[in-house]
Write a structure and sequence with these properties.
The protein has about 375 residues and is of the alpha/beta class. It has 14 helices and eleven strands. Strands 1, 2, 3, 4, 5, 6, 7, 8, 9, 10 and 11 form an eleven-stranded mixed β-sheet that branches. Helix 1 links the parallel strand 1 and strand 2. This is Extracellular solute-binding protein. Its main location: periplasm.
Length: about 375
């Protein structure tokens, strides 16, 4: 369920299966997408806008890891010429995988002049999908979410306060009461954020207070895991957890005693993007789809129906969001400005994060 691992899969929400166009020949638009990340209603609306609407193919894939492997497979010489797999026009990819796909030459830049609604994305999104000095755009975001704090309201009513920011995790009342992700970048990152620094800090060994802060946080933690971190919270073994919004939203929709908050000093962001496999000749139809996803109404519908966030600002009304989810799905521009995507680090820096994380858990 770890969006930021090349080893673990990605959890999505249980929406209806979308889709399938004509199977007898190559469709004019062939999209391989993360299952449940695009509502069937949105696909049907797009079909009505194009002449070949009945011959479009949208194929849901369970995990981002599978989509990444498809990108790799399409760039390999076929082992059997009669069984060559044709690449899709567009594919879902998580932001954390983007740089690896570029480095391995699995994807190609998009023609920005063909995407009229690109101007609706603010600079933070543009910087995410550029990844080079030439200004090329390598992907188009269509939904996103956060690393957030979720907690048991009943326990905190007795304490007389509510968690609002990362610094609350160190409060004495939470000793041995917290579930954390078993993820060096996420855990060390939230401590860096508490210290006023970036999730993507490289010189972590030069931050004198970092190790002591990590040791103090470890005393608060009862459970580390990136897949089952919510289970101790549900059964009452912990009172608070840190995790990904796409995992947490289904839980708080089901259990009224839990609520979630995006930390005020900023957090880590994940995003689902459209990318184009290397060598594919994308015509007008593929760019129509990208533009369609960036229309405010469409983007808002994707966010509401998949219970995620929209990369297009101010296109969702508060009345359209269930009250328990408003803390997570109403975009706060101030918090968003302080939040960050986890960018790839040099291998030696990544190793420093992993070593420090192991040392923290042994303290």
């Amino acid at each position: 369920m770890d969006r930021r691992s090349f080893l673990l899969s990605t959890t999505t929400l249980a929406l209806s299966q979308i889709i399938i166009g004509c199977e007898t020949k190559q469709a004019p638009l062939n999209i391989q997408l993360l299952k449940n990340s695009i509502p069937g209603q949105v696909v049907n609306q797009f079909r009505k806008t194009v002449e070949s609407g009945g011959n479009l193919k949208f194929t849901p894939i369970d995990q981002i890891e599978e989509l990444f492997k498809l990108l790799q497979t399409w760039q390999k010489p076929p082992t059997n010429k009669n069984q060559k797999s044709l690449p899709a026009n567009l594919v879902t990819l998580g932001d954390y995988w983007l740089q690896a796909a570029i480095n391995q030459k699995l994807i190609q830049p998009l023609s920005t002049e063909k995407i009229q609604n690109l101007a609706k994305l603010d600079e933070k999104w543009r910087q995410l999908v550029k990844h080079d000095q030439e200004g090329k755009i390598w992907g188009i975001p269509y939904r996103w979410g956060n690393t957030v704090i979720v907690y048991n309201q009943e326990k905190f009513e007795k304490l007389g306060w509510k968690p609002r920011d990362w610094s609350d995790l160190w409060r004495s009342e939470l000793e041995n009461r917290i579930s954390l992700l078993n993820h060096p970048r996420e855990v060390i990152g939230l401590v860096l954020k508490k210290l006023g620094k970036s999730y993507n800090t490289e010189n972590i060994n030069q931050i004198s207070s970092l190790e002591s802060e990590l040791q103090a946080l470890n005393k608060q933690v009862k459970f580390y895991d990136s897949t089952k971190y919510l289970e101790p919270l549900i059964i009452g073994d912990t009172w608070l957890a840190v995790g990904w919004s796409n995992d947490i939203i289904p839980m708080i929709s089901r259990y009224q005693k839990f609520t979630a908050v995006v930390p005020q000093s900023g957090t880590a962001i994940w995003a689902d993007l459209w990318v184009s496999p290397t060598g594919v000749s994308n015509d007008t139809l593929a760019y129509q789809w990208l533009d369609f996803c960036l229309q405010p109404n469409t983007s808002g519908q994707i966010a509401l129906l998949t219970k995620s966030n929209s990369p297009i600002g101010n296109n969702i009304a508060i009345r359209d969001i269930q009250k328990p989810l408003q803390n997570l799905l109403l975009n706060n521009s101030e918090i968003f400005a302080k939040s960050e995507f986890l960018l790839p680090l040099r291998p030696e820096v990544t190793q420093e994060y992993e070593d420090l994380f192991m040392k923290m858990k042994k303290s």
